[in-house]
Amino acid sequence: MLFVVATPIGNLEDIxxxxxxxxxxxxxVVSEDTRETWKLLNHFEIHKPMMSYYKGCExxxxxxxxxxxxxxxxxxxxxxxxxxxxxxxxxYLVRVCHENKIPVVPVPxxxxxxxxxxxxxxxxxxxxxxGFIPRKKKEKLEFxxxxxxxxxxxxxxxxxxxxxxxxxxxxxxxPERKLVVCRELTKKFEQVFFGTVRNLYDEFKKSxxxxxxxxxxxxxxx
Length: 222
Hints:
The chain is α/β, with parallel strands linked by helices. The chain contains eight helices and ten strands. It folds into two domains: 2-107, Tetrapyrrole methylase, N-terminal domain (Cobalt-precorrin-4 Transmethylase, domain 1), CATH 3.40.1010.10; 112-217, 2-Layer Sandwich (Methyltransferase, Cobalt-precorrin-4 Transmethylase, Domain 2), CATH 3.30.950.10. The strands form two sheets. Strands 3-2-4-1-5 form a five-stranded parallel beta sheet, with helices on both faces. Strands 6-7-10-8-9 form a five-stranded mixed beta sheet. Strand 8 (178-183) and strand 9 (191-196) form a beta hairpin. It is elongated, with a radius of gyration of 19 Å. The N and C termini lie far apart (43 Å).
C-alpha cells in the first residue's frame, strides 16, 4: 500500500496525528529530499529507512518502489513540504501504483496552495493553478498576457530569486489588478499582502526580499 502523506510547509505543529501514525507504521519513506524529511522524522523521533524520489529519476525509482510494494510492504510518499503531487513528480509513482493495482491512500494535510487561497479574500467557486511559472523574461511575459483576461483568480508559486522580476512583469501587463502575495506561510515571518499589482510592486522594490511566495492574481471580476 502506498500512502501519499502531506507534511508541514513550515510550522511542524501542522502535522496531523494520522500522518504521524502512518509514518511510524510504514516500512519505507520515499522523499523528494531525504535531508529535509530526516529533519521532520527526527523531530518526531521516527526512525525509518528512506529513499529519494525527485524529478529526473522518477521512472527508475518508481519501478524500484513498485517492487517493494509488491512484496507487501507499506510505503509513505512525502515531498519537501506540503502535499505530494502539487508541482512535484509524485504523480508518476501514483500512476504506476494505480496501473499495477496497488492501493493508494491519501493522508491529507498542509498545502501552500490551499493555505494561501484561504486568506486571499477572493471568491473561489473556481480558480486556476499554474505551479511555478516560466523563469525567462520573454516566456513569463507571454504567460501573463495569456492569463490577462482570466475571470477567475490565478495562483502560482515563485522563488525568492525571481520574485521581483515576476512582479515587474506583472506590473507591465496588469498593474491595476488585485493581487495577494503570501510570504513564508506558517513560518515565523509569515506575511500576507493585499493590494494592486502596481502598489505591491512599488512596496516590494523598497524592501529586502526573503522567503518563498504564493501569489494569487485576482480575476477580472475580483
